[in-house]
Amino acid sequence: MPGIQQMMKRRKTVVAVGLGLSFLLGTVMNLFYIPGFDHHHQARDHGVRFHQERQQQTARDSRLHVGEPVGTESVFAQGGRSDTSETQRDLQLQIRQRFDEVVRYRRHGGSPADPVPPLERRRLMDLEPGERSWNNPAPGSDGTKDRPQIPSSGSLQDFTAALRDSNRTRVPLGCSSLDNVTEVRYLGSGYTKAVYRAALNRSFSVALKSVDFGGHDMESCVRQYGSVGDCYRLASFKLLKEMSLMERLQHPNVLTLYGYCYQETNDIADTVTAITELGRPLEMISLLQTPWEQRFRICLSLVRLLHFLAHSPLGSVSLLDFRPRQFVLVGEELKVTDLDDASTEEVSCTSLTPDRCTITFPARNFSLPCHRGHCEGINEKRNLYNAYRFFFTYLLPHSGPPALRPLLDQIVNATGELNWGIDQTLIQMEKILQLYKTGRYLQNNTHTHTADYRGLLDVSVAGEDYRCWPSYQHDSCLLSVFSLQEAVSVCESHAHCKAFVLTNQTTWTGHRLVCFKSGSSRLSPASGRVTYVRVGS
After folding, report:
1. Contact 304/256 with Cβ under 8 angstroms?
2. Measured between alpha carbons, how far is residue 106 from residues 154, 338, 354, 462 in Å?
3. Do 323 and 414 fall within a single domain?
4. Same structural domain for residues 174 and 287?
5. Which of 32, 161, 343, 400 is the most exposed place for a label (fewest CB within 10 A)?
6. Would you tell me how many other CB atoms lie within 10 Å of the CB of residue 26?
7. CATH number assigned to the domain comprising residue 339
8. Is residue 56 domain-resident?
9. Which one, of 184, 343, 159, 175, lies nearest residue 249 by Cα?
10. What CATH number has the domain bearing residue 108?
11. Cα–Cα distance, 507 to 480 (Å, whole number)
């Protein structure tokens, strides 16, 4: 018995060690074989190609040729199979439908009947017919003449300006722009795409989006249809749709598409990777703890975005997936990053089918009028109510200036009942912005100062901080004010405040950042700052 017990213990130890080594090996493999990335040394020591082991198999048996003419030899019937089963026909039909949707957005964003020239079907994300791509330059050219250059040093503004100039000739960043990509880091994934952060020339960070082979869409499709190649093709059209919409819907609150990498080599499949502006995820819990001015800016950015989408060149655009995770912050500006679930389709209706114009939400429903065969304003109203329930309710009214709260409550109530459209909502938001920036919200302030304050130029107070909410710094009371009078009013409303320091920093609205202090015993020199110390009760 003791011998058997020792043998069992040894077996358990071996199994535990084996599991540990497997986990370690899997972690290392994930680091070096990120979906869509692999370092290679045959062409360049530090080059990067976008692939995965399963993509190599895809390349051998089913290459993706986005946009070839539809037919038996087309993109919809590749892979070398003669399987014409019902399930395969269903998959090919889905691919065709997604393909046609992308073509419509590339051309006009209009009806399914829009004609598409054969040349454009060849490669949806290529340059216009007759233009040369970077990876296929004109004979005798090195392909670098019109290529936007990645600066070895410089600002984001300079880089964006170069891209803007290059986009006038429809030449985006391409695969060659990723030759020196470094610091590749996985950020996250959804149903379809995986997102990575990377640095170009070690000086400029971008986001790289590619189809996630381990994502829900790919796994469920392969499980149902058994074809990695066709399932990749189906999923890739969602990424191509998003890229097309980024091109067509250029706006300060839409993430910028810098370019794309579309590989065609013998050892990897035709996999597409989008190169976009990099933002940071929207964390609602953190936003609830930020000052009102920052939260108002996010809501204003969202309203400006929805106003643009309601009147876009493609028509009224609905964001069918409106969760906060579909947005990012670039600087402090809100931008929509996921557009693969956006739609310009308007619901058709008749006087006999009024139910088609009902918008259903978890908490309540809304019935819209049927006007000229379509549900009037359904895309706009869906966006606006989602903005109310995901953003306005939590971010807009809380801790706002007392004089502005009635206006803020009015916006929340009107959008929550869909009494306003996006035009009226934008007018009211811009009105609040002007009242706040100009200080007119303080005109009816009847506060009477109860103490005198002595000003000390080029002086600050070391330490002696106390916490207040919401503050720009969690370990102190740092707030924004329009004027000295407002700073005095804030100080006298805080029981702990005995002094405050006017900094030389301003917010996006021009308000001055002021640090409120619990005492003034530790004065210290500070160029550009002014300290006010309470001298009366």
Report:
1. no
2. 33, 17, 33, 59
3. yes
4. no
5. 32
6. 10
7. 1.10.510.10
8. yes
9. 343
10. 3.30.200.20
11. 7
**C-alpha atoms less than 13 angstroms from C-alpha of 40 in its C-beta half-sphere:** 15
Residues across the chain: 537
Return left, alpha or beta for 418; rule: phi > 0 is left, psi -120 to 50 is alpha, else beta: left
| Residue numbers of the domain that contains 529 | 453-534
Low-confidence spans in the chain with pLDDT less than 50 = 1-2, 4-5, 7-9, 11-12, 14-83, 110-171, 265-268
Q: Structurally, how many domains does the chain consist of? A: 3
Q: Is residue 464 part of a domain?
A: yes
Q: How many CA atoms lie within 13 A of 463 on its CB side?
A: 3
Residues with catalytic roles: 321
Residues 291, 390, single domain; the answer is yes
DSSP letter for 390, please.
Answer: I
The tokens describing 430, both together, are 């811009």
Backbone angles phi, psi at 504, to 5 degrees: -100, 20
pTM of the full structure: 0.75
* Same domain for 384 and 420: yes
Strands 342-343 and 370-371: unpaired
Residues 210 and 318 in one domain: no
Residues in contact with 462: Cβ distance below 8 Å, sequence separation at least 6, in sequence order: 522, 523, 524
Please, what is the angle between helix 228-248 and helix 53-61, to 10°? 100
Residue 38 has what pLDDT?
A: 39
CA distance 398 to 477: 18
For CA atoms 374, 379, 381, 382, give the dihedral sign.
Answer: positive
Is residue 357 a part of any domain in this protein? yes
- Token output for 504: 């030389």
Q: Are 401 and 441 contacting, i.e. CB atoms less than 8 angstroms apart? A: yes
- Residue identified by tokens 């108002």 is 296
Residues whose CB falls within 8 Å of the CB of residue 191, separated by 6 or more in sequence, listed in order:
215, 216, 217
The structure tokens listed for 388 are 């109310």
Contacts 24+ apart (CB under 8 A), 218-224: 218/192, 221/91, 224/87
Domain termination site, one of 383, 412, 442: 442
Residue type, 517: K
Helix (H) or strand (E) holding 24: helix 2-32
52 and 86 together in one domain: yes
Q: Phi/psi of residue 55, each to 5°?
A: -70, -30
**Pair 291, 432 in one domain:** yes
The residue among 442, 470, 489 that closes a domain is 442
Q: Are residues 162 and 203 in the same domain?
A: yes
Q: What is the pLDDT of residues 503-530, one digit of tens each?
A: 999 999 999 999 999 999 999 999 999 9
Q: State the pLDDT at residue 269.
A: 60
Would residue 4 count as lying in a domain? Answer: no
DSSP H helix total and E strand total for the chain? 14, 21
Structure tokens at 35: 């979906």
**What was the pLDDT predicted at 277?**
95
